[in-house]
Fold this protein.
Amino acid sequence: MQIIIIEEYPKMSQQAARFIAQKILAKPNLVLALPTGNTPLGLYCELVRMFKEGLIDFSKVTVFNLDEYLGLPPQHPQSFRSYMHKYFWDHVNLRPESCYIPLSLPENPEAECYRYEQLIASYGGLDLAVLGIGENGHIAFNEPGTPWESLTHIVKLSPETRAREASKFRGLDKVPTHAITMGIKTIMNAREILLLASGEEKALALSRSLKGPITPETPASILQLHPNLTIIADNLAARHL
Ligand code: GLP
């Protein structure tokens, strides 16, 4: 495990973007898993800037989003699909057919999970999974208690996770109750993992995940067993490490 602590968020995002750029240079047809949330906003901004400066070519890259809410129309402003269009996909030369995210209104949600998992497998699996972390140690939408063996599946969102999103949705009752997420096993099968953490509110989750017992109660703690894990954190998130 390699832990890189950077004093502030903008530099942390820069470091993360350079990390990804290096991987794409080494393997132009990289298969990436990407997160949403506040943490990676700076990363996407930096990747777009590097693309516009001619430093990165995404034309052969494939991206899979980690997760998506269930029950929202795809064009809903809070869907993760909208987020990805807004902050990343629409500003770089990724081919639209190489940008994957689970359907938010699938006819058959179980079949959608299977289809997504098969799709990832059809690309030979993930080269690099980029992750954020929830305050309760969740990764993607794998909430505490998720079995280590889980593949892409449907989750019931925890009350904490829903409460945290309530302001974005203008009311707790409007926050979706379920989501589709890559499972712990899907993520652990990635050949490399980059975990990003920023801000004081992530400090406990991060130290528990990296230094505490490996337990499903802290989903990110399984990352301790990944052979190729890098953590990029700012000072605030790393304060208990
Ligand atoms: C959501 C996402 C995760 C993300 C987490 C933390 O639950 N599904 O992928 O890592 O939120 O988000 P933030 O970066 O906004 O703290």
About this structure: The CA atoms of residues 156 and 178 lie 5 Å apart. The chain has one domain: 2-234.
